[in-house]
Amino acid sequence: MQTIRKRLSILFVVCSITAILLITFFVNLTINNKFNKYMIDTQNKRYERIVSYLQEVYKREGKWNENSGIELMHEAYMGSYCLTLFNSDNKVIWGMDPNAVTNRFNLEAMKIKDEGVYITQKFDIRFNNKIVGYVEIGQYSPIVLSEEDINFKTSINKSIIASGIITLIIIIAVSLYFSKQFSIPIREVANMSVYLSKGEFNTKSNINSNIEELEDLRNSVNILAEKLSYQDKLRRRLVSDISHEIRTPLNVLQNNLEAMIDGVLPVTAERMSHLNEEVIRFGRLLDNLNILKEFEAESMKLSFETAFLDELITDVYSDFCVAAEEKNIKIDYYLEPNRDYRITGDKDKLKQVFINLISNALKFTEEKGKVWINVYDNSKNIVVEVKDNGIGIKEEDLPFIFERLYRGDKSRHEIEGSGIGLTIVKNTLQLHSASIDVESEEEEGTTFRVYFNKFADV
Ligand code: ADP
Q1: 401: CA distance to ligand 1 center in Å?
Q2: What pLDDT, in 10s, does the model give residues 167-218?
Q3: Is the CB of 364 under 6 A from ligand 1?
Q4: Residue 429: its pLDDT value, please?
Q5: Sign of the dihedral defined by the CA atoms of residues 182, 185, 189, 195, in that order
Q6: Strand partners, 453
Q7: 20 to 30 A from 13, CA-CA: which of 90, 130, 157, 296?
């Protein structure tokens, strides 16, 4: 198995080497072709120059002798080619020995096709449109390269190789750097998932990546960790809440029954009915769990019809007026006039939603407190606001209040409840495509807002 970093680096380097080799090959090929063409042009010009020089010599001297144009021999020797001068009858006037140029000839360095094969070319020497002689130019390769030419070619090859090596070193460094940008966040996410699988949910990846997909992956794993940690807290809380709810009535029953068995407490009808109440409370807890089960199994049946929210809430408000008066709480009910409060929904279930919200507001507000019920149209939605100036909700409790069996610490100890009212509210609203939010401050009060889609939007 290889690390991502190693695999990516190898990939970069292999691709780069291939690219460099291909570039080197094509650059070399092009340069060689161009260079050879240039050399052939130069060579042809030299042939023309030799022929016209010998024509000039003939013109000056009027005939050939064994020294005519012999001074060309030196240049020919230096240029590694052989000259032979013939008269018009093809008789040699003077000529060079081809062997004399072979030792000057660096065949190895030139790497030319047909190396070592002696090639000759014969040109006419004309005067007054008459052939007066011939010159034969012979050489050991199609192109004759001087030492400078060979040096030029090798230096080009060397610089191509050198630039290839330097490029490769740069590419290796760059690939190591870039592959690190992939490998570090991926390794971090992999480590995080190991922690998560071990149940350590408080881990978080803090290394940002500027690669979109990796950043998305990192964010998703961070969200996953947060959710798992939230679920874990919730699970612990649920277990402790349920055991608390079960233990309380059981303890009361056990202590009383033991005292009765020991004869410490006389068995009276009043005591027995008190114990029966505890059993009923216990049964209520199980009933509540059953209601939750219905929601979770999504087996709840809703009968949708056109409902008038204003009428529905006015009904619930009227039902609570007496209870509020008993607790000396004032309910302020405001219904924005001339609005269309029609929605599509299950009237009974929606009534239950507002019963839960208003009963909570009364339950968690002390005597002489105040509760506001406001129903209005905010142009996007129909909003139902249930507000109180009661005990409020702790900031750390706020994210959990809609969870099953969750009860704020205070309410758990001092105020009766089951911790499922808001879960039912949220689930019912979800089935009506409505949403709910909450704002609260401890000792200041709480505001729940429910947002319904308008009738035409449903
Ligand atoms: P219950 O009221 O039976 O405890 P709910 O699901 O209705 O259960 O509410 C969950 C918790 O949310 C309550 O225990 C309480 O801590 C908090 N809560 C709900 N409504 C209010 C409110 N109006 N003011 C203060 N706390 C509230």
Answers
A1: 7
A2: 889 988 888 888 888 888 888 899 999 999 998 988 888 888 888 898 999 9
A3: yes
A4: 93
A5: positive
A6: 381
A7: 157
